[in-house]
TrEMBL record:
Highest taxon above the source species: Bacteria
Protein name: Uncharacterized protein
Organism field: Falsiroseomonas selenitidurans
Length: 88
C-alpha cells in the first residue's frame, strides 16, 4: 500500500523536461529507428502533457542531427513533418 500512496503523491513530470528526455531517447543511434518510431506513434495524442511541445519534439526527431531517426520510412518522415508544422 505504501507504493501506491507514493505513486499517487508523485509530482508529474515537467513538460519541457519530458520533451527533452524523449527527444534525447529518440535521437540516440542505439535502438534506431525503433525508439524514434515508438515515440512518433505516441505524438498523435494532442491531450497529453506534451501537447504544447509536440511540434517542437517532432521537429527535433525529424532534424538531420537525430541519428535515431535514420531508418524511418518516408511515410514516417512525412508524418513527422506534418506534426512539426502543426498540421497533424
Amino acid at each position: 500500500m505504501i507504493a501506491a500512496t507514493a505513486w499517487r503523491a508523485r509530482t508529474p513530470p515537467d513538460a519541457e523536461q519530458l520533451a527533452d528526455s524523449l527527444g534525447s531517447l529518440a535521437c540516440k543511434a542505439e535502438g534506431a529507428p525503433h525508439v524514434a518510431r515508438a515515440i512518433l506513434q505516441r505524438l498523435g495524442n494532442p491531450r497529453g502533457t506534451l501537447s504544447p511541445l509536440i511540434a517542437e519534439l517532432a521537429a527535433r526527431i525529424a532534424g538531420a542531427d537525430c541519428a535515431g531517426a535514420h531508418g524511418l520510412s518516408d511515410d514516417e518522415r512525412r508524418h513527422l513533418a506534418r506534426i512539426a508544422a502543426g498540421r497533424d
